[in-house]
Amino acid sequence: MPELPEVETVVRGLAPELPGRTIRWIEVLRPDLLRVPASVFEESLTGCLIRHVSRRGKNIVITGDDGRVLLVNLGMTGRLLLSSPATVVDSAAHLGVRFDLGGGYELLFDDVRRFGALESLDPAEWAKRELGLGIEPLSTELDADRLHALLSRSKAPIRSWLLDQRKLAGVGNIYANEALFRSGIHPRRTARSVNPADSRRLLDALRTVLTAAISAGGTTLRDYRGADGRPGEYRPMLRVYGRTAEPCFDCGSAIERTVIANRSAFHCPTCQPSGLEN
DNA sequence: AGTGTATCCTGCAGGC
DNA sequence: TGCCTGCAGGATACAC
């Protein structure tokens, strides 16, 4: 599911509500969402005073007063919902973990497919984990030159490169395909074939798409919801993702679906030449 | 070392 | 109606 804009939307929904609240108790209904025994998870977080909510890549980072981090990855179908006295959530059909925050507030992790994960990390573990994540695409530390330098080291298909969280953190299949369309780059071209001018356009396209999607509250294909339970509204703005055989908005050619590394890729055969024609 | 493939899991759409 | 196949916003253990 959830890529950077969706996770950012969840974080923005939780950030005004969670800090200052304490995790009173935790109920684990689906232990396979954790990487440690439920008792260990519960013990490490019960009593934790929440200080801060942020995002790193596709991860929701909930930091406690002692620096401990509750790291939430939504996987494909995960939802992190805030139930409050004013807005009671009763739609969690696949509830996995429930955090009681007192005062009628509950943080609910709901996940149909259970590809999501919740982890409790001490500051050192979190610092180590974060080192493994690539640069944030919206960070000012990333510019076209740096992106080009990173791309030039890989002969992986550019679509695969964009999905690799160790290189760039937060981009998933929807926005990778959308950004490649907008920058006129065929998804199967090698990363190192992307020249400086391409890199400039790709970075601009990534930022345009991610920023617009955040403004729309993300893209809901089926399962995604914000912390308030509302779907995202970016779907109608998608230009290639899920539009197999439909006309390209720019040139009218039929959008093609191919498979790269076991995952669908969508592109316009006219607007995104493979570079292998001649 | 750096890639692509297969797998985890459930639900839904489409074909017959 | 019902069965079957394929497909889905992700991450990761493997084989090459």
User: What is the number of strand segments?
Assistant: 10
What series of H and E elements makes up the topology? HEHEEEEEEEHHHHHEE
Estimated radius of gyration: 20 Å
Q: Which residues form runs of ≥5 with pLDDT under 50?
A: none
Query: How big a fraction of the residues is strand?
Result: 15-25%
Number of helices: 7
Shape descriptor reads: globular
- Note the main sheet: 4 strands, antiparallel
Q: Please give the share of residues in helix.
A: 25-40%
The average pLDDT value, as a whole number, equals 96
Describe the oligomeric state of these chains in a short phrase. Answer: single chain
Strand order of the largest sheet: 1-6-7-5
Distance between the termini: 37 Å
Detailed description of the structure:
This protein has helices spanning 4-14, 38-45, 123-131, 144-151, 158-163, 173-182, 196-215; strands at residues 25-28, 50-56, 59-64, 69-73, 78-83, 95-102, 105-111, 117-121, 256-260, 263-267. The mean pLDDT is 96. Helix 4 crosses helix 7 (196-215). The two termini are 37 Å apart. It is globular, with a radius of gyration of 20 Å. The protein has a 4-stranded antiparallel sheet. A 4-stranded antiparallel sheet has the order 2-3-4-8, with helices on both faces. With 278 residues, it is an alpha+beta fold. The longest helix is centred in the last third of the chain and has 20 residues, at 196-215. It binds a DNA duplex (16 and 16 nucleotides) through residues 1-3, 6, 32, 58, 73-78, 94, 111-117, 154-157, 160, 163, 165, 172-175, 218-224, 241, 260-264.
